[in-house]
Structures are given as structure tokens and as C-alpha cells.
Automatic annotation (TrEMBL):
This is DUF6326 family protein. The chain crosses the membrane at residues 22-42, 62-85, 92-110, 116-135. Keywords: Membrane, Transmembrane, Transmembrane helix. Pfam families: DUF6326. The keyword Transmembrane helix applies. The keyword Signal does not apply.
């Protein structure tokens, strides 16, 4: 049996770069959206509707599937954008896209029946919380603080007078 020394110091929480937080948030959002879509197939009548050529009330068409694909490309692209863009463009892009996606996520509850409200409240609630985290993180992006430059004349004058 080995004796381990007791931990006497608290764990260190290293600062996480803003870009890493944003990439993690967009990745989490992507997983939630995909799983909600997959779990939606378990709702009664969904697969039968797809077999008959309908998704919700819409005919399955190349246009509809292109719209669905485009909606999934957004969070996927934001993972890359959040890692690659310079800070200013990154911040603006995250703020705009997250604000636009919140109503889009809420729209997914349109037409739901009372029995499915808990499913949509939880899924949309988590999606919106992640997007609020993106907004908060991008909004509070740390600024570079630069010290004001001291005028050279005042430095030279101070040393001459002594």
C-alpha cells in the first residue's frame, strides 16, 4: 500500500483562451442540434412522414434539404471561424451569428403538441443557453491594455534638474 501525500494546495485553473471557449461552445451546440434531430425520428409518425415525402408540412425537395444543410453548416463553420479569425472579426461574427440563431432555435418548437413541450423546452433551452454563452464570451472579449507613453521631454527634464 502506497501513501499519497495530501493535497495541500488548491488546483490551478489556467485561463482558457476566448477562441477555445467559443470553439467548444459551437461544438456543443452542433452536438445538441444533431442529437435533437436524431431523437426527433423516435416521435410517432415522423419516419412515416419522411417515407411519404414530407418533413413537418414541407415536401422533401432539393431546396428543403439544401436549407437544412445550410442551417447545419452555420455552427460547423463557426467552429472554424472562432479558431481562425482575428479577434475583432471573430468577436463581431460570433455576436451576429449567435443573435441570429436564437430565434432560429426557438422556431423549432413551432407546431409542437403539449406532450412534446418538455422535450423542446430542454433542447431549445440548452441551445439558447449555449448561444447566450457565446454572446457573453464574445461581448466580454478581453481588450489589450497599453500603458500611455510618457512624453520624452518630461523624462529628460526630470533627470536634468536633479
Amino acid at each position: 500500500m502506497t501513501n499519497r501525500p495530501a493535497a495541500t494546495s488548491p488546483l490551478d485553473t489556467s485561463p482558457v483562451p476566448v477562441q477555445t471557449k467559443l470553439v467548444a461552445a459551437w461544438t456543443s451546440l452542433m452536438f445538441i442540434i444533431v442529437y435533437v434531430d436524431i431523437f426527433n425520428f423516435y416521435k410517432p409518425g415522423v419516419i412515416d412522414g419522411i417515407r411519404s415525402g414530407l418533413i413537418w408540412e414541407f415536401d422533401i425537395s432539393p431546396t428543403l434539404l439544401t436549407v437544412f444543410l445550410a442551417s447545419m453548416i452555420v455552427p460547423a463553420a463557426m467552429m472554424l471561424v472562432s479558431a481562425a479569425l482575428p479577434a475583432r472579426a471573430n468577436r463581431i461574427t460570433n455576436l451576429v451569428v449567435a443573435m441570429l440563431l436564437i430565434p432560429y432555435c426557438v422556431f423549432n418548437a413551432a407546431g409542437t403538441t403539449a406532450e412534446w413541450v418538455p422535450f423542446y423546452v430542454l433542447s431549445i433551452g440548452v441551445e439558447v443557453l449555449i448561444l447566450v454563452f457565446v454572446l457573453r464570451t464574445a461581448w466580454r472579449w478581453p481588450r489589450v491594455v497599453t500603458a500611455p507613453a510618457a512624453p520624452e521631454a518630461s523624462l529628460a527634464g526630470a533627470s536634468v534638474g536633479r
